[in-house]
Amino acid sequence: MRLVALAGGTGAAKLLRGLDALVEPGALTIIGNTGDDAPVWGLHVSPDLDTVSYTLGGFIDESRGWGLRDDTFRTLGEMVRFGEPTWFNLGDRDLATHLHRTRLLREGRTLTEITTRIARDLGVRHAVLPMSDQPVSTRILGPDGWLTFQEYFVREKTQVEVRQVDYAGAAEARPAPGVLPAIAAADAVIVCPSNPVTSIGPILAVPGILQALEATPARVLAVSPIVGGAAVSGPAGRLMAARGLEVSALGVAAAYAPWLDMLMIDTMDAGLAARLEAGGVCPVVAETIVRGRDEEVALARRVLEALA
Amino acid sequence: MRLVALAGGTGAAKLLRGLDALVEPGALTIIGNTGDDAPVWGLHVSPDLDTVSYTLGGFIDESRGWGLRDDTFRTLGEMVRFGEPTWFNLGDRDLATHLHRTRLLREGRTLTEITTRIARDLGVRHAVLPMSDQPVSTRILGPDGWLTFQEYFVREKTQVEVRQVDYAGAAEARPAPGVLPAIAAADAVIVCPSNPVTSIGPILAVPGILQALEATPARVLAVSPIVGGAAVSGPAGRLMAARGLEVSALGVAAAYAPWLDMLMIDTMDAGLAARLEAGGVCPVVAETIVRGRDEEVALARRVLEALA
After folding, report:
1. B294 pLDDT higher than 90
2. pLDDT band at residue A47, thresholds of 50, 70 and 90?
3. Which of B34, B103, B109, B245 has a Cα-to-Cα distance from B251 of 20 to 30 A?
4. CB contact, 8 Å: B92 with chain A?
5. Contacts by residues A209-215 (CB-CB < 8 Å, ≥ 24 positions apart)
6. Whole-angstrom Cα distance, residue A274 to residue B295?
């Protein structure tokens, strides 16, 4: 079974780790969000791609959901002296990834090549692809102007009124090599339980990806990151509202229409099933909130069963 | 008293720290060697400039003579996984300096501006200038071809036969802004006890600096790094021999003729005084091997007395 997964960061990574436990090595092609890639101290940081590869490689810091386990922050501690920004937490071990990526980018390698190498070096058994080799920057319009996603999310801790969200550069971006063929050849496409606006939204904004999702014969199933009218974690609710989407599984379905076949919703939202079905999306009810490795695998199994 | 010092790394830094204890803040303009600057993981590393600023700022690791005190090597430890070279030891705290420097260089700042900022941020009370803003690379010809200085010194631990030394790029380099005016306006110029071939040699190879040293009305005093026919530390002896210089204070004088007024030699080499004098260089005999902070200051005092 050839699976394609559209993925953001932490929420996606848990489902992907569950899938990794169930499918053959190489069965998954993960298309990761790069809309929240950020320049930090002159380095190219790809938070979502790294969260996926760190998680699948077994290196993720489980309690934080980002970065490497047992990391320290000694470089960051020195940056204060030089007046460099210190609000983006790059650990010492984590820095190796960003230095390596940045060096290769400066030497002319593409983000696709580099992401593939890093995933391999971390022992990931599946393909991890960026959505695009061209820069796409998710931006948030607040009362004082535009913020990059990381400024909004990390520096301002999401405490900024969201007036608008856009994906700067998306119109000029092209899908990374491998993205469209993977979608076309997939037996199933899984949209991970990631923020529809700032994790999946940037992927869909790359010209050609939406069309590929509409055209693929594969079944497309999304797992709703909204449970009981609120995001499982993060600012997805506020961001969806800012995009005019209802903060519910119905809003998630609306974001992914018309190419979505199935939406996995939490048992808590079972009451929405009929309305989803009326809207042309097949509801799949499951326990979607995962609290440990067993529940990750159980959720992944439920996804595979629904797609079978 | 306006002093200019030509400086390499560790040996120079000790004398400079002694001088710092005796002269007014701002009295010193230090012209540092950048011939052993190296690209490491895509970062621009300036080992000699950093050793000087770390030492004068009070941050140097005294036992190693390079890098920051209490540093760790966690980023380096991860680099193995990505196949990045790990023979050049960059500490986690140290990395902040190189990241900051590299970011500013990429933004178009000059090495002079950046070196000034870093020295200031580290609390250095004197001017630290690179010899040039253009790249000059000290290279060592061994039996298997050319090596950069760091490849020779760190990776090969100097265990390579030296057939030739050159300073690639020197012909196209220009003295950094401030270098020639400082030499012209100096009351005295001090050539620190650094390797004449690979620490001071690259500085002298930058067109214009030699001429400024010949033209300056300032007295020029060098402290010999060769004591009793051998280098106080490092491969200076072998490198001098490869350049056809006698491995002795006489060879040091020969390297700095004809612009050298005085050469401070160790008491152990007092017997060479007459031959130095015959060669037109005024010998100054002193205890030049320093074992602690008091001796650094004593050496610096002796230098200032000789120049007075």
Report:
1. yes
2. very high
3. B34
4. yes
5. A209/A31, A209/A131, A209/A175, A209/A179, A209/A180, A209/A183, A210/A259, A212/A175, A212/A179, A212/A180, A212/A183, A212/A184, A213/A183, A213/A189, A213/A259, A214/A258, A214/A259, A215/A184
6. 87
Which tens digits make up the pLDDT trace of A232-283?
777 888 899 999 999 999 999 999 988 999 999 999 999 999 999 999 999 9
pLDDT at B58 over 90: yes
Residue A159 lies in a domain: no
Nearest Cβ partner for A96 among B72, B82, B103: B82
Interface of B with A in 37-56 (CB under 8 A): 41-43
* CB within 8 Å of B271: residues ≥ 6 apart: none
Mean pLDDT of chain B: 96
Tell me the CA distances in angstroms from B242 to B149, B245, B253, one per residue in order.
14, 7, 16
Report yes or no on A172 lying in a domain: yes
> Within 10 A of A275 (CB to CB), how many other CB atoms are there?
14
Could you tell me the two tokens for A230?
């609120």
Q: Which residue has the tokens 């009793």?
A: B228
Model pLDDT for residues B141-158, shown as the tens digit of each residue: 999 999 999 999 999 999
Residues of A in contact with B106 (CB under 8 A): 42
Within B149-196, strands assigned E span: 164-168, 188-191
When divided into structural domains, chain B yields a total of 1
CATH number of the domain where residue A96 is located: 3.40.50.10680
- Reduced to 3 states (helix: H, G, I; strand: E, B; else coil), residue B193 is coil
Mean pLDDT of B115-122: 98
Average pLDDT over residues B125-136: 98
Whole-number pLDDT of residue B1:
86
The answer to whether residue A149 sits within a structural domain is no
Q: Which domain holds residue A111?
A: 3-141+168-307
Angle in degrees, 0-180, between the axes of helices B293-307 and B10-20, rounded to the nearest 10: 80
Burial class (CB in 10 A: 0-12, 13-18, 19+), B216: buried
Quote the pTM value: 0.94
- Residue A175 pLDDT: 98
Residue of B68, B100, B106 with shortest CB distance to A84: B100
